TrEMBL record:
It comes from Faecalispora sporosphaeroides. This is Trk system potassium uptake protein TrkA. Residues 136-215 form the RCK C-terminal domain. One of its GO terms (molecular function) is potassium ion transmembrane transporter activity. Keywords: Ion transport, NAD, Potassium, Potassium transport, Transport. GO terms for cellular component: plasma membrane. Residues 1-119 form the RCK N-terminal domain. It holds the Pfam family TrkA_C.
Length: 217
């Protein structure tokens, strides 16, 4: 997976290191070349010096071939602009922006840009949002503390019951699409091959949900 991270501060550099260690191809953009020192010697990605919303800079970072972008500069305005450019001009599939202003965050979420506020920010949280390749976020509740995701049922779960994919207080199956119909399951409902499952989960339970689904990414 190819990822661009704009902003190499404490959080941006930490995210870059985490995603690089996970095996992703990471490119970091920052206007201050000295900031790249925070990446450390173990970072194996690329760095690009420049302003994150500059067209030439983004093209040097190969945004046209990027799977995900995270905008984490110290400026809400810059992050919002970078996110909109990535989403609307370059059609980057996954875009995350850190915005301190919650009102702005709500506006951009309605426009399809996933946002993180200073109160919900976390490297693990951003890593999950960028790398959930088989989980499609449908809706984010509050400031990102919980979300509704859509997933095509893994073949190995066919024949299992809904309660096997339930963690009280963290993970709940709320709906199943089957044969062009939608049903509200009980804990005893049995999954069938081809089901599309809608799951409400807390942001902290992402790793646990992946394990329950049998995912290793």
């Amino acid at each position: 997976m190819k990822i661009i991270i704009v902003g190499c501060g404490r959080n941006g550099s930490g995210l870059a290191q985490a995603m690089s260690k996970a095996g992703h191809s990471v490119t970091v953009i920052d206007s201050d070349p000295a900031a790249f020192q925070q990446l450390g010697k173990g970072f194996h990605g690329k760095t690009v010096e420049g302003i994150g919303f500059d067209k030439d800079v983004l093209q040097r970072a190969q945004i046209e071939r990027t799977d995900a972008l995270a905008a984490f500069t110290s400026s809400d305005e810059s992050n919002a602009v970078i996110a909109r450019i990535a989403k609307e001009i370059y059609h980057v599939p996954k875009v995350v922006a850190r915005l301190y202003d919650r009102e702005k965050a709500e506006i951009y979420k309605r426009l399809g840009v996933q946002t993180l506020s200073s109160t919900t920010w976390g490297i693990k949280r951003a890593s999950d949002l960028l790398s959930y390749s088989s989980l499609n976020q449908v809706y984010s509740f509050g400031s990102g503390e919980a979300e509704l995701v859509r997933v095509e049922l893994p073949a190995l779960l066919a024949g299992h019951r809904v309660n096997e994919l339930t963690v009280v207080g963290d993970i709940h199956v709320v709906a199943i699409e089957r044969d062009n119909k939608t049903l509200l399951p009980t804990t005893g409902t049995i999954f069938q091959k081809g089901d599309v499952v809608y799951i409400a989960a807390t942001s902290a339970s992402g790793g646990q949900l992946r394990k329950l689904l049998g995912k290793t990414w």
